[in-house]
Amino acid sequence: MGRNEEAYTALDRLRNPKPQSELNKQRVGMELSEIYFSHETGLGPERVSFRELVKEWFCARVKGIARTPHRRIHPLSFSVFLHTMYQCTGINFIMLSLPSLAESDEALSDPLVIALVFSFVRLCATPMYMLIFRKLGQRRTLFFGGLVVSSCHFLTAIVGMAVGLTHEEFVVNRVQLVFMALLLFLVASSWAPAVWIITGEIPCTATRSRDIGISAGVHWLWAVFASVYTPYLIEIEWVRRSAIFLLFAFLSLGSCLFAYYFVPETSRLFLEYIEVIIQESDPRVTREWKPSDTFGWRRDPRTEVKHCRVPRVRKRWTSLRE
């Protein structure tokens, strides 16, 4: 900003190539004001230090974030917790424990065969996310995806308990491998792509790169932690067969609750409106949210625009109300 007169002249020449009425000139000023306020909203709050971030996790006041009746969370904290909930689905443990489980099956004892089979499963699952996202949106995709993943973990644990009740260990291994492949398919078609998309949309423009970098670092930190504890867990038969899947079943239910209470519906929204919806709306009702006005709904001293109301934007953001 700063060169407001030149910006107004350029926008007026673009919108009105011929002399127009005063009303059209006022609309140009309103549009310039809208551009300024959307840019200002996109910048978002000031940078949040790690010390302030820890304070926020303990419900303390964070600089630049006002306290409101609704329980809200800073975008950086939200991104970190979302990646943590993604790891609670048990995806890393499944990927690391597959070779040891498949060793008892001669047909899948080759690590290359295992890698090819389950890579093909993930490859086929990822395009399914685009279809699910169009029907359900981000929020419902995470919620229902977590429910189905939790159910699949429970079934895998039940099958693992059958090892001590039957001598058909070969059959049990095959059934568990099928359920684990189904788990990979479910996570790859719901949580895996949605988490990275949402964490890229939630942060404000001024801090997006830093927030995404920190949340991605937390993601890989959990992956390293999983690679450390997995070799010890798979050495214990009852843990490898059933106990760990029961644990991840309950953790997946926790991921569902996190998606229900904290994840807003960001599909079909501009990035500026995502910043507004985090500050103003309860995530549980964001699917029905639509703005009552635009960013230019006030006087802008930089562009000398009068206090005036601009048309509301429809829910699907495709056109303006006349």
TrEMBL record:
Keyword Cytoplasm: no
Subcellular location: Membrane
Keyword field: Membrane, Transmembrane, Transmembrane helix
Pfam families: Sugar_tr (PF00083)
Membrane topology: Multi-pass membrane protein
Transmembrane regions listed in the UniProt entry: 76-99, 111-130, 142-165, 177-200, 212-232, 244-263
Primary localisation category: membrane
Superkingdom of origin: Eukaryota
Any single Gene Ontology cellular-component annotation: membrane
UniProt keyword annotation of Protein transport present: no
Entry's Gene Ontology molecular function annotations: carbohydrate:proton symporter activity
Secretion signal, residue range per the UniProt entry: none
Protein name as annotated: Major facilitator superfamily (MFS) profile domain-containing protein
